[in-house]
Amino acid sequence: MTSTLELLQQTYGDTEQLDLADVAEKYFDLKVSSLKKKIKLGEIPKFFCDAITNDKVSIGSLAELLDSLQAFNTTEMTTTRSISPIAKLMLQSDLTDMFGGVLIPYKIVAEKIFHWKEGTAKSRLASGKVSEMGLVTVRTYESTQAPVFVLVNDLANFLLLKRKVLIMNHV
Predict the structure, then answer these.
(1) What separation in angstroms does the CA of 154 have from each of 32, 38, 45, 56?
(2) Does the global pTM surpass 0.85?
């Protein structure tokens, strides 16, 4: 079981199927009709589309989609590997509670973590400074108009990496 699936199960409890409308709004920042259009156009991964029945999708399929978006940076993985898996899961759980889900809109992360205004956040993302800092961002579908998100796992890795850098710089 992946940590993404664990976090989704923690968020949704015993619910195994989610309404497509809720998934569209929360994880794609779209109305359900727009998501269905993107599905028909082939802009959403096939495995996720195949898992949709009666306008419901399984938590497992959503976790698989989010995991497929997960961009693993080997430097971050190596640096954060020394952290206890339980401590890392606790941080991911706290971040999930703090932000209300495992997929966080970038603009909210920029505001709450970096204290950037929306214009600053957009310009730093567009200029590549966010990537240079080591924060991984994703789009849930292929389009320059697609909203930008940060996966809670990537945010946890980023925070753990930066914590180590800050501690090493002050020693």
Answers:
(1) 26, 26, 21, 27
(2) no
